[in-house]
Write a structure and sequence with these properties.
By secondary structure, the chain is an alpha/beta fold. It is built from eleven helices and five strands. The protein has a five-stranded mixed beta sheet, with helices on both faces.
């Protein structure tokens, strides 16, 4: 029974993939190759978004051209393993573009920073080129931070809504507040300590909220969460 179910599941998956490819071709006018090797042969650069568990194995089956730009968005990718799998091509690493990249405002991290991929990723938001692989691995945790920020925003929106504010207005209030604060960080040269000192009036409500969050471990919880993400990413790369 199990032996029959696995081939059947694979056939179903392939059918879904073919239907999805056909839909994308019709919607966006893209070409659908017959195989991964054909994609490599016909592409100037190759953006790899395979599952990390099988990604390197799949890449090692393909033949790349010398110096062909290859970008891996596989979680836990390591430069040496990528180089070995795609040689003689040139490998770079990035995080998978997020929701905001569809609006061309989401950041991307890149290592070591080939000009081909700086230009490519620059079309969907700012690109931060990291100087070392250790920096890239640490920065990769921002992918989880980006997604988790939606959970935090949802909780805050729910609180304001529970106080009687209309949900649509609350959503705009929270989003506009965070966008404005983000612009402060992007445009001001002040240190974070100075910015916090400027916005937290002694005895005011900002100081009260920060004190309560500190008292209950709310701020430190983000560090513990990011520690767990970093350990997961390091573990994938060492597997």
């Amino acid at each position: 029974m199990i032996a029959w179910q696995i081939p059947q599941a694979l056939r179903t998956l392939r059918a879904v993939i073919r239907l999805t490819a056909a839909r994308l071709a019709v919607t966006y006018g893209c070409e659908v190759a017959a195989s991964n090797q054909e994609v490599v042969d016909r592409s100037e650069g190759v953006f790899v978004a395979l599952p990390s568990a099988r990604g390197m194995e799949e890449l090692s089956r393909l033949r790349f051209r010398p110096e062909q730009p290859v970008l891996s968005a596989m979680a836990g990718t390591r430069a040496h393993a990528l180089s070995t799998a795609i040689g003689p091509a040139c490998g770079d690493m990035a995080m998978m573009p997020g929701y905001a990249n569809a609006l061309r405002i989401g950041p991307s991290i890149l290592f070591p920073g080939a000009s081909f991929w700086r230009t490519f990723l620059g079309h969907v938001g700012p690109v931060l080129v990291l100087q070392t692989e250790d920096q890239f691995v640490a920065a990769a945790a921002f992918g989880a931070l980006s997604g988790a920020s939606f959970a935090w925003m949802a909780q805050v929106i729910d609180w304001f809504t529970a106080q009687g504010l209309p949900p649509d207005q609350t959503r705009k209030l929270v989003a506009a507040t965070l966008r404005g604060n983000a612009e402060v960080l992007l445009q001001e040269d002040l240190a974070m300590e100075d910015i916090l000192r400027n916005v937290a009036t002694p005895g005011g409500i900002t100081e009260l909220l920060v004190a309560k969050l500190t008292e209950t471990g709310g701020l430190e919880a983000w560090e513990r969460g990011l520690d767990a993400v970093a350990q997961r990413l390091e573990g994938i790369g060492q597997a």
